[in-house]
Specification:
The chain has 469 residues and is mainly beta. It is built from no helices and 45 strands. The chain starts with 18 loop residues before the first strand and ends in a 9-residue tail after the last strand.
Length: 469
């Protein structure tokens, strides 16, 4: 006996919304489901709007919003989420669901600057949050968010759009869990799949926090834009950036600005990847690997000191560390690590003794793959920073494996194969060290810069196999 259709809206002068939830309006269902349906047809403004300090609290009931705007002219947005809060403790999944569709270039889900919404799933089992935004043209901005908390204790958080997601904001943004909220820890799987991911505004208040997997990827091979900034700090159970299945057609450049920390493996796929502003990649779980697999190559910004704040660190806790460039084998794509970069597979321990049990470190590339699933060939010619070499390590770069083998394999079609500067330490414990440096140009295969201020270059191995180095 209940209606199944959506609110069509009305055309009274000055009122264009199908549904307007005024400031401070509270909706409590006490355990019943809350269902919102709007099917707006009149051009102008949004189909539904939830204004400042509005609240939906459903207890153990679900909250479902299905909003569409079919007008093809004017500013015909889907749903505006101002400073609104939606809370559900439902165990069915998803506990909170928002689906918004528009028929023109307007935003399917929208906020104004300074606004911040909260979606919270409180169930200790099940629950979760699903947000989907659809637009008729994939280059349209379907998701336009400034500030938010999208939080779930256990159930999956899924964000999907067939259009652009614009996160450009200096405001606080949280997925999973956040301090000072009702979700202080999360085990939710978090999936963000969009046509384009815009996050180019400097922001030190944004985080993705969960003990489960985080995956961010384009719908197909690529985001619509080639330069993807990532200002979210990620702390997760495992992390996947990009798609592995169509890697060799990727044009995605990932720029990690605030670092990624994971108990499980970190896997990054794309055309290029950069660690910016002394951000880190770190796995803390035993034997969890870091795998960076790129069609082109990798770049690490220069640091200023050996302190955590002064350098970029790529660390594992005895897991393998694989930096794989030039996956399509066309000879283009190297690895450039500027000064004070720190690679370590011994959980941060820098020992020059006969240590063992650490993970392998491999800097290489190409399309040929060994039985271990890692490349057997060389990185290609770098296209970032230094374009006349394959692999570059700047001053005071540390490479410690704690017993794992270290392989550095570079081949350039220009001046140098591998270039290393003073202060570089390569220490493998009982593992072996292999440096393979080639150039097909008229230059030098391996170039070792002279010591400055009595700071030497060191390669140390306690391996019993021959040759150790």
């Amino acid at each position: 006996g209940h209606p199944t259709g959506g609110i069509p809206g009305f055309s009274q002068v000055g009122n264009y919304e199908g549904l307007w939830v005024a400031p401070s309006v509270k909706i409590y269902s006490g355990g019943g489901d809350v269902y919102i349906a709007v099917a707006h047809t009149i051009a102008g403004y949004q189909a539904a709007a939830f204004r400042a300090s509005s609240l939906i609290w459903s207890g153990t009931g679900r909250i479902t919003a299905s909003v569409s705007h079919t007008a093809t002219s004017g500013t015909s947005r889907g749903i505006e989420l101002a400073d609104t809060t939606w809370v559900s403790a439902a165990t069915s999944s998803p506990a909170i669901s928002i689906t918004a569709r528009v028929s023109n270039g307007s935003h399917a889900i929208y906020q104004s600057s300074g606004e911040s919404f909260t979606l919270t799933s409180l169930a200790s089992a099940g629950g979760g949050i699903s947000v989907s935004a659809f637009t008729p043209v994939t280059t349209n901005t379907a998701l336009f968010w400034y500030g938010f908390d999208v939080l779930s204790r256990t159930g999956e958080i899924s964000v999907f759009s067939n259009g652009v997601s614009n996160w450009n904001s200096t405001q606080a943004r949280d997925f999973g869990a956040a301090t000072g909220t009702d979700v202080l820890s999360s085990s939710a799987t978090i999936s963000i799949q969009v046509e384009d991911f815009l996050d180019a505004t400097a922001n030190n208040q944004s985080a993705i926090s969960t003990s489960s997997r985080v995956q961010i990827r384009p719908n197909g091979s690529n985001f619509a834009s080639t330069d993807t900034q990532l200002y979210f700090r990620i702390d997760a159970g495992s992390v996947i950036l990009g798609n592995s299945s169509n890697l060799n057609s990727s044009t995605v450049t990932w720029n990690s600005r605030r670092g990624i920390r994971s108990n499980g493996p970190i896997e990054i796929y794309g055309n290029r990847f950069a660690l910016r502003e002394q951000s880190d990649l770190q796995t803390t779980g035993l034997a969890a690997r870091v795998l960076v697999r790129l069609k082109d190559g990798m770049y690490v910004d220069a640091g200023s000191s050996d302190s955590d704040a002064g350098q970029s660190r790529i660390w594992t806790n005895r897991g393998d560390l694989i930096l794989w460039a030039d996956t399509d084998g066309d000879g283009s794509g190297g690895i450039v690590m500027e000064s004070f970069t720190d690679l370590n597979t011994a959980n941060g321990v820098e020992s020059t003794s006969s240590s063992s049990l650490g993970g392998r470190i491999l800097l290489g590339g190409g399309s040929s793959v060994g039985a271990d699933g890692y490349p057997t060939g060389n990185a290609g010619t770098a296209t970032w920073g230094y374009t006349n070499r394959s692999i570059h390590t700047g001053q005071n770069v540390d490479i410690y494996s704690g017993g794992g083998d270290i392989r550095i394999l570079g081949r350039s079609n220009s001046s140098y194969g591998v270039v290393m500067y003073f202060g570089t330490d390569i220490v493998s414990g009982v593992g072996t060290v292999e440096l393979r440096a080639e150039t097909t140009g008229s230059g030098t295969g391996f170039y070792l810069d002279e010591a400055v201020n009595n700071v030497p270059f060191n390669i140390i191995s306690y391996a019993s196999s021959s040759p150790a180095i």
